[in-house]
Amino acid sequence: MQDTKNPKVRLKTSLGDMTISLDAQKAPETVANFLRYAKEGFYDGTIFHRVIAGFMNQGGGFRPGMIEKETAGAIQNEADNGLRNEKGTIAMARTSDPHSATSQFFINANDNDFLDYKSPSQSGWGYCVFGKVIDGESVSAAINKVSTGSSQGYGDVPVDDVVLEKVEIIG
Question: Domain PPIase cyclophilin-type, which positions (predicted)?
Fold first, then answer.
C-alpha cells in the first residue's frame, strides 16, 4: 500500500539501486510532480548527465547521447519548506528562474547549505528538497566518483553513461 505522506521510490541505476523516501507533507507539489513522471516512465532510460564530485549527481532530463527529453510545465518552488540540502537528500534542479523546475533532480553528495532557501527573492529561493536516500547511499557515492568530461557542449558529464534504468514506486 502506498504511503501518501512519505511515498518511497526505488531508483534502479546501472551502478545499483537507491531507495528514496519522499516528503509529500513538506513538498506536496514537488512530490506529486516527481511521481507523475515516474508513473509515466519518463525517467526510465535517462542518464545522470551532470556529476560533480563532492557536490551532487543530477539526472532526470537526458537520454544517452545528451538528448534532452521534452517535459511538462514548470512547478512552483517549494524550497521554503524547511528541508535542507543535506548529504543524501534529493532536490529539484532548475534554471536561474526559481520557479522553473520540471523533471530534473539532483542527489546531494555533501551538505550544500548554500542551496537552501533564504528569502523569496531571485537569488534567495534555493533548491527544493523533497526526499532523502534511505537505502543505497553507496550507489549515490559511486555515481559521485565517476570520471567526467565534456559532451555536446555540457560539462561534468560522466564519460561512461550512468543510466537511470527505472524509477519504481514501492510504497
Answer: 13-169
